[in-house]
Known about the structure:
By secondary structure, the protein is of the alpha+beta class. The protein has one domain (2-154): PPM-type phosphatase domain (Phosphatase 2c, domain 1), CATH 3.60.40. It contains 2 helices and 11 strands, in the order ββααβββββββββ. It has helices at residues 31-51, 58-67; strands spanning 2-4, 16-19, 75-83, 88-94, 98-103, 106-110, 115-117, 120-121, 124-125, 139-144, 150-154. Helix 1 crosses helix 2 (58-67). The N and C termini lie close together (10 Å).
Amino acid sequence: MWVRVGGSGGGGGAPGSASPPTLHRPRSVDPALFSRALMAGAAAAVAADAAAGRAPCVRAALAAAHAATAGILGSATAVIATSQPNGTLAVAVLGDSGFRLLRGGRVAAASDAQQHAFNTPFQLAAPGAGGGDEPGAADVYEVEAAAGDVLVLAR
């Protein structure tokens, strides 16, 4: 997923990505349900901030996203990005999802993967389901954005 960053920095929009681990596929769990609920929860939190006239908070959006997955089997890594009124980008990353900010054909900023051990990324599971990490474990980045930048979010 990509988004082109404009020069005005109005605090609008929140691209995101959630990626379920492959371990759920053989267990007859639809990994898309959890990921969709996670991103829908994040979008709702960012929209609520905008409606209230507040700058979006990626950490709060990730916590709201996590709460939106209650009762859904599955887990996912996640990355959520928001543009801030001061022209910066705020990005929350949990697990091996991540971002790259491209400027002039070069990487201007990038996230690091979070792993407990090899091939064991941090991930969110439904509240109370056990086995997942908490949204507060996410790394939060604030990066300067410029007109023409390209933000890439992916796993």
